[in-house]
Design goal:
This protein has 15 helices and seven strands. The protein is α/β, with parallel strands linked by helices. Helix 5 runs parallel beside helix 6 and helix 12 crosses helix 13.
């Protein structure tokens, strides 16, 4: 039973947006820009946490030789941003978590790292983090649940939240990839300067109104069907409509759902999954409606942001000059067939001799 659970847990299926996001992160690490912030935003259950884990593995594989030569360097720093129970976001626990990851005695490659130098007493937590980053020199910092930075009592405090992250990223010259829900994308509106100096990737769900998305979702369901262990005979591909309705097109919800269905089957002393198992363990319609409502609202905003060429021209007062159509010239010799030269257009007789014109006798 545990082997069956582990097989499904480790199952990886093809995911179009997953591959796009992973490629973008890799490109930003290999080709740094003046912006050291990258936002990965999407609905809950779309697979952002799985993307963060895949990014860690990718960094280790990409820079294995470089990290072996420099054993004092960390390949990455990765941790979850803690939520605040009451009041504004607490930066104290954030700095503590950051320092703990930088002071790990064992790197992700299981190599022992030297201890960091002691922090002077007059240094606050911000300076301590900056000093530790300078010593460890991580290639990238990965922050999951970064939408918790939005927990402020007043919207006017949002720019200050982003300025602190921007200060750490720019002063350390370390790419900070922030994974979060759509709240994270809303932060960019609070700071136009940050919006200019950062990039946002919309890690969206599969949308059934797009045929390409629906085809990709069907292939994804087919891939999960091949990973379901035990004596599985249910054809998940034939249940695409049910799978989409109860997951709203989010890969993470599908995977968790299949894990719950597998447990439900085992509790009933069965070694195969049925439609009844799927229906019994599906997410409640009320929760799905809330997730779908938020996703559709934010998707429309991000879609509008990606197609603002006309409004940008209006803001720039850029004149639109309509090119007039050129009139067609009518041929004077209408009776001549196409391709027939006009006999009066070329000189005849001895008008040209040895390349020099002669005066014609009158």
């Amino acid at each position: 039973m545990f082997q069956a659970r582990d097989k499904l847990e480790k199952c990886l299926v093809g995911h179009l947006r997953f591959s796009e996001a992973l490629g973008l992160i890799r490109n930003r690490i290999d080709f740094p820009l003046d912006s050291n912030l990258l936002f990965i935003v999407g609905p809950s259950g779309v697979g952002k946490s799985r993307l963060m884990v895949a990014t860690q593995k990718m960094v280790l594989q990409m820079h294995a030789d470089e990290l072996n030569e420099d054993r004092s360097r960390l390949p990455y720093v990765a941790f979850d941003v803690q939520a605040t129970n009451v009041g504004n976001f607490a930066w104290g626990p954030f700095y503590v978590d950051y320092l703990e990851q930088l002071q790990l005695p064992l790197a992700p490659s299981k190599e022992i790292l030297k201890e960091l130098p002691p922090t002077p007493r007059n240094h606050g937590p911000h300076k301590a983090v900056m000093s530790a980053i300078a010593h460890r020199r991580p290639l990238v910092t990965l922050l999951d649940e970064a939408n918790h930075l939005c927990q402020v009592s007043n919207a006017r405090l949002l720019p200050q939240q982003l300025d602190k992250i921007k200060s750490i990223a720019n002063r350390s010259r370390t790419l900070h990839v922030m994974f979060g829900t759509y709240e994270l994308a809303a932060l960019l509106d609070a700071s136009p300067q940050l919006a200019r100096r950062s990039n946002t990737f919309h890690f969206s769900r599969y949308r059934c109104e797009r045929q390409s998305d629906l085809n990709a979702f069907t292939e994804m369901i087919k891939g999960f069907g091949s990973c379901v262990p035990l004596h599985h005979t249910l054809d998940l591909k034939s249940r695409v409509e049910l799978m989409y309705e109860k997951s709203i097109g989010c890969t993470g919800i599908v995977k968790n759902w299949l894990m719950a269905a597998l447990g439900h089957a085992c509790r009933n002393n069965r070694d195969f999954i049925t439609v009844q198992d799927l229906e019994a363990t599906a997410m409640q319609n009320q929760k799905l409606r809330l997730l779908l409502s938020e996703a559709k609202e934010k998707e429309s905003i991000l879609d509008n942001c990606s197609s603002q060429n006309d409004s940008l021209r209006e803001m720039l007062n850029f004149p639109y000059i309509e090119q007039p159509e050129l009139p067609l010239k009518e041929s004077k010799n209408r009776n001549a067939s196409p391709g027939t030269p006009n006999p009066r257009s070329d000189p005849t007789g001895g008008a040209f001799r040895d390349g020099e014109p002669e005066a014609c006798a009158s």
